[in-house]
Design a protein that fits this description.
By secondary structure, this protein is of the alpha/beta class. The protein has 16 helices and nine strands. The strands form three sheets. The protein has a five-stranded parallel β-sheet with strand order 2-5-6-1-7, sandwiched between helices. The protein has a two-stranded antiparallel ribbon with strand order 3-4. Strands 8-9 form a two-stranded antiparallel sheet.
């Protein structure tokens, strides 16, 4: 595609530098947490840019003296604590190579015993625990997890450098052993108060429960909510980068936010397509081109969106049609009669299920689509069936 390498809008990866949208205050706060052995929870809706913001903060922290050691693990894609432990150890290995610490010093003596297979190309090593994953008890997994943090504290003391632990989508720890996993993680964090903890999460309703009274993380964290970027700041950022392509008309940035917002990644994805369209046509991006760019993104994702639609029940599909039309008072008898929806309790159950699946998000007393692309697909492909 023309100009692909020059496109300043990046998606599907952690970004920094010119590709990173303004988050100066958030970056500064996360950086300070990494350097001060505090516990910070960074939370907000999906695709707001939490991972990139933490990545940029880590880059800033590493420019401090003494240079900190920052290790990380994605909890959401782990199936148990062995996975999280191994990821933290791999991160520690890569993070401390510049300190020239011996591998035996980093990993030796851990229980259960750790087996390491180095990558011949210098990539992350393969790290496994010497115990059968299928038969290991939760207690054995927890001992391995605790051992990693003991080693991190030892590294901090011997290297005389701050050590920060980043746990992305940390709320997924609940999937290991329910609420007891929360209390175990809290206990580990409290016993290793010499380490900094930056936890990130995107399931806001679940996170609100985890930090509520009588729950493990009540008053455990400093809180940093990552919401939408100021629309004028973001619009200017978008237009400045679009101008480097084929040019941009005033108002395009705000139109991008209106059609694809408020999630940072969604807006950037449409801006990326708009940049390509401008290069292909050889003319500047106009306000009316934003809709065409969004529709192009929807066309590219249509097979996935169609598959998602086919997995839903007829009642859930009907609810989504009505939400896509922007109808308010979804549970009212008038709306249900007009659009042929079932009883209020059935509509409520459908909405709850769609929220739990991440298709809808709560918005005030109603609901809205999580994805502007799925909403557009529903609006153009299936909502007309309602008449």
């Amino acid at each position: 595609m023309p100009g692909e390498q020059q496109n300043p809008f990046r998606i599907g990866e952690r970004v920094s530098g010119y590709a990173f949208a303004d988050r100066e205050q958030e970056v500064a706060r996360i950086r300070q947490a990494m350097l001060s052995a505090s516990s910070l929870l960074v939370y907000g809706q999906r695709r707001m840019g939490k991972s990139s913001t933490i990545h940029v903060a880590a880059e800033a922290a590493r420019r401090s003296r003494p240079k900190p050691i920052i290790v990380s693990a994605d909890v959401a894609t782990a199936t148990n604590l062995f996975d999280v432990s191994a990821r933290l150890l791999r991160s520690l290995y890569l993070e401390t190579r510049w300190l020239k610490l011996r591998l035996e010093d980093l990993l030796g003596g851990l229980a259960p015993r750790v087996t390491v297979k180095l990558d011949e190309h210098g990539g992350p090593p393969s790290i496994t625990f010497g115990i059968d994953r299928r038969t290991a008890s939760e207690e054995e997994r927890r001992r391995a997890f605790e051992g990693v943090f003991e080693r991190l504290s030892q590294v901090r003391e011997s290297a005389r450098r701050p050590v920060a632990v980043v746990l992305d989508e940390f709320q997924a720890v609940r999937s290991f052993a329910g609420e007891s996993s929360e209390w175990h993680l809290r206990d580990v964090m409290q016993r290793h108060g010499d380490l900094a903890f930056v936890c990130a999460g995107s399931q806001e309703s679940l996170i609100h429960g985890m930090i509520g009274p009588d729950r493990a993380f009540y008053k455990m964290f400093d809180l940093l909510h990552l919401g939408p970027i100021d629309e004028h700041v973001f619009a200017d950022w978008l237009e400045e980068r679009l101008a480097r392509g084929s040019g941009v008309a005033p108002g395009v940035g705000l139109q991008l936010l209106r059609l694809a917002g408020p999630r940072t990644q969604d807006v950037v994805q449409v801006a990326r397509q708009l940049y390509f369209l401008g290069l292909a046509s050889g003319r500047r991006a106009e306000v009316e081109d934003v809709q065409a760019a969004l529709d192009e993104v929807v066309r590219s994702e249509a097979p996935l969106l169609r598959s998602l639609w086919s997995e839903l029940s007829p009642q859930q599909q009907d609810v989504l049609r009505v939400v896509a039309l922007g109808v308010e008072r979804l549970f009212s008898a008038e709306v249900r009669d007009q659009y042929g929806l079932p009883g209020a309790s059935s509509v409520h159950k459908a909405v709850e299920t769609l929220v739990a699946r991440g298709v809808l998000v709560r918005e005030g007393t109603g609901a809205a689509f999580d994805s502007p692309f799925f909403r557009r697909w529903v609006l153009t492909e299936v909502a007309p069936d309602l008449g």
